[in-house]
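Data availability (excerpt). The following record was deposited with the supplementary files.
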Amino acid sequence: MIDKFVSNAGYRIRRAGKKVERIIPQVKLGSGAGRAAGRFLKEKGLDRPLRIDLRFTGCCDASLGLRADDINENDLYVETGGLTFIMDPEVYRLAGEVAISYVEEAGRKGFLLTSERPVSEWEGFGVSDIQV
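Predicted structure:
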């Protein structure tokens, strides 16, 4: 197995024979985020990775969100906290490493995603649910 760092893209590529794996350097899970995501997947009966992607609401700047999805051939991935997270390489180039926290307070309940390179000036203000 060869482990190669691709500096212009910011992620590692592992080659094992003909199989190519693309690994996101880091997804950081805050307190309670992994448990909340795992509980959601279990309640929905889903055994799928969670995709970190861009969301557009129509009225505001883009934001990062989570969606239960299947892995695509070119996706980057990382396993952490018993969960698999996937991301399109273009989204990774835009956002960089991602931190996921879970917020449960009056008027706000859900996942809060922030990134190494914020995708909008409002990043970190709104919470979101996992889309299916």
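Summary of structural features: Residues 47 and 117 are 30 Å apart (CA to CA).
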